[in-house]
Design a protein that fits this description.
Blueprint: E1 3-6, E2 13-14, H1 16-29, H2 37-44, H3 55-62, H4 68-83, E3 90-91, H5 95-104, E4 108-112, H6 118-127, E5 136-138, H7 152-169, E6 177-181, H8 184-193, E7 196-200, E8 217-219, H9 222-231
Parallel strand pairs: 1-4, 1-6, 4-5, 6-7, 7-8
Antiparallel strand pairs: 2-3
Helix pairs in contact: 1-4, 2-3, 5-9, 7-8
Length: about 240
């Protein structure tokens, strides 16, 4: 193996505290009732196989009965708050350690995230001292694909497009890399491209059983993945 492609939110980055904070600040800014953690988990994670999963879905559910302009205004406030709170970004346990270990082993590393605004993700990487460990960062902005994806099939296809572009830019073939993510669409995109897939049970996978997607490897954490790779001489 010569390379690795990582998802960001929920995989390398721990997103929940920041998302919860930003969602509730957006709601209260517009005079709406904040949500609790149970509501957040139910509508952010436990609807993983629905179209549009994520903060927009949480806000739309919290604002049921409100008109579209109101929902759009709250979501825009959420986006601005999220972009202004890079300092709240944190890493999953073992994330920086596995990146450093892979770099020492000579791997090319790409982060390919389905988030859109690249400048915000880039700021998070810098804040968390990840930039020096990564050869390439791609977001949906690099594909020009903005807004909510219209179907589950499109989610997988756009994920596959993003990962395929990462492979081209780091000059590796599908059989030379593995893809690490926390969602079912990561696994399906990897299989579509013929890439070995690693499902880490953080983020979406910490609240859902994605075993039916048949990833090549399932791990509980980045530390476990690093230990497996070191013992197998960096092969999956």
């Amino acid at each position: 193996m010569k390379g690795a492609v990582f998802d960001w939110d929920g995989t390398l980055a721990s997103i929940d505290e920041r998302e919860f904070y930003c969602i509730n600040h957006a709601l209260t800014e517009h005079g709406s009732t904040p949500i609790n953690n149970e509501f957040y988990v139910k509508n952010y994670y436990l609807r993983a196989y629905e179209e549009g999963t994520g903060p927009r879905m949480v806000l739309e559910t919290a604002l049921i009965g409100k008109n579209r302009p109101m929902i759009d205004a709250v979501y825009e406030s959420y986006r601005k708050i999220f972009q202004a709170t890079v300092e709240r970004a944190t890493l999953q346990t073992g994330a920086i350690e596995i990146l450093k270990a892979l770099k020492r082993a000579g791997f090319k590393i790409s982060i390919a995230t389905m988030r859109y605004t690249k400048s915000v993700v880039d700021s998070e990487l810098k804040h968390l001292a990840v930039t020096s460990q990564v050869d390439l960062l791609l977001t949906r902005q690099d594909l020009g694909v903005k807004g909510t994806l219209r179907s589950l099939e499109e989610t997988v296809n756009q994920r596959a497009r993003l990962v395929a572009r990462a492979l081209r830019e780091i000059s590796l073939t599908p059989d030379e890399v593995f893809l690490v993510g926390d969602s079912w669409w990561d696994v399906r995109a990897g299989k579509q491209l013929g890439i070995r897939t690693v499902l880490v049970k953080t983020g979406f996978a910490s609240h859902n059983d994605f075993s039916r997607e048949n990833p090549d490897l399932t791990v509980s954490s980045m530390n476990e993945l690093r230990e497996i790779l070191e013992k197998s001489h960096w092969a999956i």
